[in-house]
Amino acid sequence: MGYLNNSTITVDAILTKKGRELLARGRDEFKIKQFALADDEIDYDLYNPEHPLGTAYYGAAIENMPVVEALADETQMLKYKLVTLPKGTARIPVVRVAQTNIELNANESTVITPSTVNFGGGNRSFGYTAILSDSDCADIVATRGARNSAASVPQFIGDSEAAQSITVSGTQFEITAKELLNADKQVTILFIGNETGGRASVTLTIKKVEIATAASVGPVA
User: Which pLDDT tens digit goes with each residue over 159-179?
Assistant: First the structure.
């Protein structure tokens, strides 16, 4: 990670594999149809309405903050998306799930249905994006789709390149544990509201398969 010079307008983008493929083809095949904005870098505690130089300097510390470079890890970027809410909205929409810690044995499944509180009908049209951090441990599918699709492209995350995330979009999701032979393992499922920008995470523990061994029988006299 690094910092960008905020004295000029800068667009720092990381293309997905599909994006690079379309850009390489040329012929105007690479077209940006959707984008999201966030203020992850902003510390609003730095806004100082008591600045001795007056109102023009209340936000000076915020305006001079460095802007971080884009990251390829979609679980770490755009945590605090900018959204447009109806005039008079007094509360920020919050994404919730019934359970934040789930334990599964091999081949067991569970269904998670995210919901949005403080905002009637929130995320009803575009649903939620669910990101499972490690496809070696479990599978995730959307069992109830959204009216419109808004899922992003899976990215490699974590220390191991073999740990590939799975990203799906919908309003209800089924998670199925895989067989682990060496040890229990924890993975994270991140749910992001595609309209409100709210998010909730679930810690999923996959139990290793217990292999029964037969007791050895000694020689018969």
Answer: 444 458 888 999 999 999 999
Do 103 and 180 contact (CB within 8 A), yes or no?
A: no
pTM for the model: 0.67
Q: What is the helix (H) or strand (E) element at residue 59, kind and residue range?
A: none
Domain end among 70, 102, 117: 70
Residues 66 and 147 in one domain: no
Q: Which of 156, 153, 111 is nearest to 135 (CA)?
A: 156
Evaluate whether 179 touches 76 at the Cβ level (below 8 Å).
no
Non-local (6+) Cβ contacts of 98 within 8 A are 112, 113
Sign of CA pseudo-dihedral 71, 77, 82, 83: positive
Domain limits for position 44: 1-70
Closest CA to 134 of 107, 105, 154: 154
